[in-house]
């Protein structure tokens, strides 16, 4: 069942991408492409291009062999999937889930420094052990064209995006470049590809528990070397709660690829309505940060040193609760 019906033939790709950015919590966007996308083919995802000619053309036969090997399915009627943001938390789990069931998987990720790149490097090493190759680059139009020249992808799982909330106040253009322009690049290249792939896109606007999280943060005590946890509450001293979701439940979004369909000439002539769908994924059971810390204390058998701090007024929301009724 659909949360919303998306008709790309009636909206530009840029409008579609902007709608994605306004969605709450976790969303799985599942749609087919129309050829009537009224936008430029020359938008780049970042102000710095990681892709000089030596970066991927210079890789030569060896680089192309890795690309082909990684994207080749190993089951009858298996999919060949391009996964953007493959070195991310969600992207790496989805890539492994696809590979486990015998699909071909090629990843792409820019390994930026928004958070410690060593986390993505560790996931890259893990994926490599499972014969999943990650192309290190942005969603650059020229690179994407090159990849589609090498591999006839059947599907795209689009997970790449600039994450975070507070950073958007410091560098809003990074979100436009990555989340809007990068998405448009991908739609344009996929639209022109032959064969044309089906696309499922996953937008995560929830907050993960990591060193950048506004929920709680470890603070170094210089005198003792011990670490305390800054636990955030609202400006009104109310509990902050999140609809924390188990990663394997989110990685189940790869199932959308099995029902994603390609555009047809009838769709492009608008004789047939696009069967596009949007699903909200989540746990549906918010947990307060205090309770989460208590659970960790119990499991680790360690009493946390907590500093209760009011959450800054910077766009972070104090409460999230996913409605997944249409995804059941």
Automatic annotation (TrEMBL):
The NAD(P)-binding domain, residue ranges = 82-194
Keyword Cell membrane among record annotations: no
Q: Does the keyword Isomerase apply?
A: yes
- Superkingdom is Eukaryota
InterPro entries associated with the record? NAD(P)-bd_dom (IPR016040), NAD(P)-bd_dom_sf (IPR036291)
Keyword annotations from UniProtKB, A to Z: Isomerase, NAD
Similarity comment: family membership: Belongs to the NAD(P)-dependent epimerase/dehydratase family.
Name by which UniProt lists this protein = UDP-glucuronate 4-epimerase 6
User: In which organism is this protein found?
Assistant: Datura stramonium (Jimsonweed)
Q: What is the lineage of its organism?
A: Eukaryota, Viridiplantae, Streptophyta, Embryophyta, Tracheophyta
User: What is the gene called?
Assistant: GAE6_1
